[in-house]
Amino acid sequence: MKLYANINWIIIIGIILIVGVIFSLHYTDYFIGNTNHKITILKRFNTKQEQSNGLMFRKIPLPENSGALFVYDKPTLLNFWMKNTFIPLDILFLDNNYKIVGIYENLQPHTLHRRSSKIKVMYAIEMNGGAVNKNKMKINDHVIE
Known about the structure:
This protein is α+β, with helices and mostly antiparallel strands. Helices cover 24% and strands 37% of the residues.
């Protein structure tokens, strides 16, 4: 009976360790602006298909203080829309130095109006609607890993 109980604990500890490694590989913490607001990047979109889909079809808001990072190979004019997006979003546009150069707040679900970066950028971050205002993020703040 004791051997069976010990094996169960070994399995439970193993599962916890595996889950911990998986989460640590996918989540990255960034700090934004002078307030050191921490944002945890839950998703990182690198491929054109991932970037095209973004957070479309997600029906549950992101956890508080988290977001999705879009990474581009070279500075690009970006356009975002809310087609097939079920949650309100804020979007930050970042230059190659991770400086915020554009912000859109509280984009409403399912709208087809395109929001442009206005200048070429290397990165974008999508967050729950209201995150920018709540955390006092602004143009020229830097995002630091």
